[in-house]
Write a structure and sequence with these properties.
Blueprint: E1 13-18, H1 23-39, E2 42-47, H2 50-53, H3 69-81, H4 85-101, H5 109-119, H6 124-131, H7 133-150, E3 157-159, E4 165-167, H8 177-189, H9 205-214, H10 216-221
Parallel strand pairs: 1-2
Antiparallel strand pairs: 1-3, 3-4
């Protein structure tokens, strides 16, 4: 099946920028995998550091810390990405399910090591990634490029082959089946209007309660307050 009538040209690949600690990006990653399953889309996983983009001025950069919650996990992802997109795809799926569904604290070193063992990668991959400074260089390169070139301010951020970038879609829980395809067509349709910058649904009390229910495992597992600078 090709792309639907709402799209602007066929899209066979998309770059998906994520931070494994973001619950919104995780839900969108489930959706984009469903689109891949139904449309044959190729996903290229890339990294974005929420710790860096939202860093208070009095805090060190994540690469200046021996272990940073999202950034250091992405160094493991960078190591696995060198082996192939399938490897980083499997890793993100496992980390996302453990953290956002099971409420496991994958941002703790020993928990992440155990998860790598369960995945069949081996716990030593974490130590290998941290011992190799170039894994951090790769995470920073992804982050710096999309922030500087596309104005990215958060995740999920999608970059299309024509160079256009979109933040979102922000949806919870992830859509499946034909609904996932309809949302994909609507997302592609935005590309017809390069100066359409934002449409946003206000969140009522019921919406906030719904989101809190979907994100309950994440809210219980995280070890930090929400910090988000206003979008430009």
């Amino acid at each position: 099946m090709g792309d639907g009538p709402g799209s602007v040209g066929a899209v066979e690949t998309v770059e998906f920028f994520f931070d494994p600690m973001c619950p919104w990006a995780y839900q969108t990653s489930l959706w984009i995998r469903e689109v891949r399953r139904r449309r044959g889309l190729e996903i290229r996983w890339r990294f974005f550091s929420l710790e860096e983009i939202n860093r208070p001025e009095d805090r060190p950069h994540p690469w200046e810390r021996s272990w940073a919650y999202g950034y250091s996990q992405m160094r493991v992802g960078a190591l696995l990405r060198r082996r192939g997109q399938t490897e980083v795809d499997d890793w993100y799926a496992a980390v996302g399910h453990a953290f956002h569904v099971e409420g496991r604290k994958t941002h703790e070193i020993d928990v992440h090591r155990a998860l790598l063992d369960e995945l069949g990668v081996g716990a030593s991959a974490l130590d290998e990634a941290l011992a190799d400074p170039t894994t951090g260089d790769e995470v920073r390169a992804d982050h710096d490029w999309v922030a500087a070139e596309k104005g990215a301010f958060g995740v999920p951020t999608l970059v299309f082959p024509d160079g256009q970038a979109l933040f979102g879609p922000v949806v919870a829980p992830a859509l499946e089946g034909e609904a996932a395809e309809r949302l994909w067509d609507l997302t592609l349709g935005w590309r017809e209007f390069p100066h359409l910058y934002e449409i946003k649904r206000p969140k009522s009390g019921d919406d906030l309660r719904h989101i809190a229910g979907v994100f309950r495992p994440y809210l219980g597992a995280r070890a930090w307050p929400t910090i988000a600078r206003p979008a430009p």
